[in-house]
UniProtKB/TrEMBL annotation, chain A:
Name of the protein: ABC transporter ATP-binding protein
Alphabetical keyword list: ATP-binding, Nucleotide-binding, Transport
Domain of life assignment: Bacteria
Coiled coil: none
Any one GO MF annotation of this record: ATP hydrolysis activity
Pfam family, one: ABC_tran
Family per similarity comment: Belongs to the ABC transporter superfamily.
Residue stretches making up the ABC transporter domain: 4-230
Higher taxonomy: Bacteria, Bacillati, Actinomycetota, Actinomycetes, Propionibacteriales
PROSITE patterns: ABC_TRANSPORTER_1, ABC_TRANSPORTER_2
From TrEMBL, chain B:
Organism: Nocardioides guangzhouensis
Segments crossing the lipid bilayer: 23-43, 55-76, 97-125, 131-153, 160-179, 209-227
Protein name as annotated: ABC transporter permease
Gene Ontology CC, one term: plasma membrane
GO molecular function, one term: ABC-type transporter activity
Species classification: Bacteria, Bacillati, Actinomycetota, Actinomycetes, Propionibacteriales
Protein's UniProt keywords contain RNA-binding: no
Length: 304, 241
């Protein structure tokens, strides 16, 4: 059982702060690192894998520093986001080379086991240059699993995978988490994270915005004011009945037609809107959420 | 822990010859030997033209270019695209990684630099094989130093090939030809001084001691390799994000 501990870690590049005073502990089981693009997820994974020095604070794996300490790689498997691999090798040659570099007693058998885990047996003798994005992702995965690490760090591992491969990888990560390994993966998609991760760490603009199990994070993200634009055949009537409902915080008639509306309880609002419209004979022509982007959800989390 | 990793050597060899510019490594010695054949046919066996050909084209152009192509081929692309992280995320000393990669580059210098110099030397001056041998030894010494220098360049900048070429053209070529003092800091001239000593009868550079040339070469080989390893210890996966 291994844990990575970040203690008041900041990292800046010249004047730009990429990670700002983050403290978190990544323990056994699957943890999802969730945040929009550019939030600092890759920087955090680089810090946790010994490929970046913190500008301040400390990053340790089982109390050992990660920076300039190559011995930590006995415990760590890393799947970087970048796609570049040794394209001139076959998949099998690549995984065997990784096993040899770890000094494993039987590199061939270890490689075969890892290749089977990611279901790449059929393509293992093809040159990596001919692989699809999903196959590259899986052979990267095999190379990082070959020494059966106690800690597995994956940067956006589901990118480029088709749904079947995605489900397979999710199963694999869950299985590794259940075995007591410390698995951390980053993603910008909440649904992806909550399907696999027991624990979710949310980062936004380099800051640690939220932490908890997926239920808590989901509540944080959905129990927030949601904005919509409605178009109906009777804006005035619907606006007044909706305003009387506790799920609606505010409503405003737009000059060019339509209602701008802010709902405070998304669950209830989605239930009462069609019912009230029907009861008052108002026809709903259009319901458009105006701030549904993940970025706006994250922005809300940070300001909360 | 061993000083070199056979796995990294194997991958390094794949890396050099698995790319298109690996072809250049075969072309450069062909040009050298081809020119030697031409000079021999036109001039006959002549010490002066042998010196001019092997120094002017061999030591000053072919050997540094072979070292540049081999060293950057084995290091620069992996650093550029980040795939070196697969070597670095292993419990292996960074100096072992550098030594393994330099071994591949040195082997290239031997096969595509020093041996063709020997062949060209024999073609040009078969009656005095020691001249060709001396140029081969000088090429090897210069090639090793160039490899360490270009390895360091590869881990310091993403433009190692361009900067390496500019260095060869401006420092070793232009300024080395114009300013006498440059010889003290010129790998090619150290290689020439070593060649002079081994051959015993050729004159390539004035007033540059053999001992100085050997010490300077060894310092560059060792220090360049060591600094490259130091630099790799601090490799940032995220680049200049």
């Amino acid at each position: 059982m291994s844990s990575i501990v970040l203690d008041h870690v900041s990292r800046w590049y010249r004047n730009v702060v990429a990670v700002n005073d983050v403290s978190m502990t990544i323990g056994p089981g699957v943890t999802g690192l969730l945040g929009p693009n550019g939030a600092g997820k890759s920087t955090l994974i680089a810090l946790m894998s010994g490929f970046l020095a913190p500008s301040s604070g400390t990053v340790t794996l089982d109390d050992e520093p990660l920076w300039r300490n190559e011995q930590v790689y006995r415990k760590i498997g890393l799947v970087p986001e970048r796609e570049a691999l040794f394209d001139y090798l076959t998949g099998r040659q690549f995984v065997v080379a990784n096993a040899e570099l770890h000094g494993l007693p039987d590199p061939g058998a270890a490689a075969q086991h890892a290749i089977a885990l990611v279901e790449m047996d059929d393509a293992q003798d093809r040159v990596i240059a001919t692989y699809s994005k999903g196959m590259r992702q899986r052979i990267k995965m095999a190379s990082s699993l070959v020494h059966q690490p106690a800690v597995l760090l994956l940067d956006e591992p589901f990118n480029g995978m088709d749904p079947r491969q995605r489900i397979h990888l999710m199963d694999l990560l869950r299985h590794m988490g259940a075995e007591g390994r410390t698995v951390l993966f980053s993603s910008h998609i909440l649904e992806e994270v909550e399907q696999v991760a027991r624990q979710i760490e949310v980062v936004v603009a380099g800051r640690h915005a939220a932490s908890g199990d997926f239920g808590a994070i989901r509540r944080l993200m959905t129990d927030r004011p949601n904005r919509f634009v409605l178009r109906t055949d009777d804006d005035r009537t619907l606006a007044s009945v909706l305003l009387a409902d506790p799920s609606v915080r505010g409503a405003r008639l737009r000059g060019d037609g339509g209602i701008e509306l802010e709902a405070s309880d998304f669950g209830r609002f989605s239930e009462v809107l069609p019912r009230l419209a029907r009861e008052h004979g108002v026809r709903l022509l259009e319901v458009t959420p105006t701030d549904e982007s993940l970025e706006s959800v994250f922005a809300y989390l940070v300001s909360a | 822990m061993s000083a070199v990793s056979p796995t990294i050597v194997r991958i390094g060899a794949h890396s050099v010859f698995g790319r298109r510019r690996g072809i250049l490594l075969f072309l450069l010695p062909l040009v050298l030997v081809g020119l030697a054949v031409l000079v021999r046919a036109l001039v006959g066996e002549d010490l002066r033209s042998t010196e001019d050909t092997l120094y002017g084209l061999g030591l000053a152009v072919v050997v540094p270019l072979v070292a540049l192509l081999a060293t950057t081929g084995v290091l620069a692309p992996e650093i550029d695209d980040g795939s070196i992280s697969y070597l670095l995320a292993k419990p292996i000393s960074r100096h072992t990684i550098v030594a393994s990669k330099l071994l591949v580059a040195w082997a290239c210098v031997l096969v595509f630099g020093a041996l063709p110099m020997l062949v060209a030397g024999l073609v040009l001056l078969l009656g005095q094989p020691e001249v060709g041998f001396a140029f081969a030894v000088g090429s090897l010494a210069g090639g090793l130093a160039y490899c360490s220098l270009f390895a360091l360049l590869s881990v310091m900048t993403r433009h190692a090939v361009v900067i390496g070429l500019l260095y060869l053209l401006l420092w070793e070529g232009l300024l080395g030809g114009l300013l006498d003092g440059v010889r003290w800091l010129s790998v090619t001239r150290w290689a020439a001084a070593i060649t002079e000593q081994v051959a015993g009868q050729v004159t390539l550079v004035d007033d540059l001691g053999f001992t100085y040339a050997v010490v300077a070469t060894v310092v560059v080989v060792v220090l360049g390799g060591w600094l490259t390893g130091r630099r790799l210890q601090a490799f940032n996966l995220t680049g200049d994000e």
